[in-house]
Amino acid sequence: MKPAAFAYEAPGTAAEAVDLLARHGEDAKFLAGGQSLLPLLGLRLAAPTALIDLNGVTELAHHRHTPDELVVGALCRHRDIELDPRVAARSPMIAEAVRHIGHVAIRNRGTVGGSLVHADPSAEWTVLAMLLDATFVILGPSGARTLGAAEFFDGFLATTLEPGELLTEVRFPLASPTTGTAFVELARRHGDFAIASAAAALETDGDGRITSARLAASGAAPAVVRLTAAEEALRGRPVGEAAFAEAADAAVEAAEPTPDLHGDAEYRRRLVGVIVRRALTRAAERIEDNS
Ligand code: FAD
């Protein structure tokens, strides 16, 4: 099918994009990579009156490291992150996760901002943002504001962005060099959306006891979640299979997965345990590699 008719605008700056959206009213939409929005238009599941095309807003296409963060412009393409050796060196978990997004053609066009605003709970960027508690920088008609990841996401395909607001940048805190991180995903075929995924970040003291544990997952609940019960189960424990098995049990216990065509709730709950154990095991191996 073809989309319904819409007006088209091509701003050159973020401020101009926000102005144009306000001028066209609440039925207008920003267009980034188009990988989620254009299929919806084609199927007429969305029919915006105007598209404000962000592709000429080059000020949003950057990504760079500061001493503490990976700073990613909303228009940065998945592929730019995937192919940057500095990201692989300083944020290996992010590089690992991005390789799972669709196929090369999708990663060439799809943007980090578009993925986070679309807020598909199985998207790799949503899991990373929750794990690292990324900061979202937002520009609206009344100025700029920032939100933490837990405040930004608002359930399935929903965010707390106000009408008329543009996501401009996302800041991902860098893990310390002694932190072991990993991203693990289960999908039927490479490139499919994840059935379940988990990201883990582990720190240990000199005696191999876990001092800090962060875990986030998709497929464990209707939205992306931090696995706080599993994190608690790990703190103070010697790093190793026994602690990981207990953490996986805690994650399974807390999981409230949504049954779908990939499996019923029981099957999906078991998957949560599997991906948590795998992510923790890989993260622990990387602590050893770093030391
Ligand atoms: P668009 O489609 O252009 O926009 C999506 C939504 O976000 C729209 O509502 C738009 O108005 C809004 N928007 C975009 N940018 C902004 C902004 N800066 N501020 C405010 N609102 C904005 N994704 C995954 O994560 N994992 C996968 O495995 C995966 N597989 C895919 C497989 C296929 C076949 C396809 C077609 C897509 C897949 N995707 C996957 C989705 C892909 O990652 C998209 O790039 C992403 O979801 C949307 O990004 P986009 O830049 O294309 O945004």
From TrEMBL:
UniProt cross-references to SUPFAM superfamilies, sorted A to Z: CO dehydrogenase flavoprotein C-terminal domain-like, FAD-binding/transporter-associated domain-like
Pfam family, one: CO_deh_flav_C
UniProt domain FAD-binding PCMH-type: residue ranges: 1-177
UniProt entry keywords in alphabetical sequence: FAD, Flavoprotein, Oxidoreductase
Signal peptide: none
Any one GO molecular-function label of the UniProt entry: oxidoreductase activity
Record-linked PROSITE patterns: FAD_PCMH (PS51387)
Name this protein carries in UniProt: Molybdopterin dehydrogenase FAD-binding protein
Taxonomic path: Bacteria, Bacillati, Actinomycetota, Actinomycetes, Pseudonocardiales
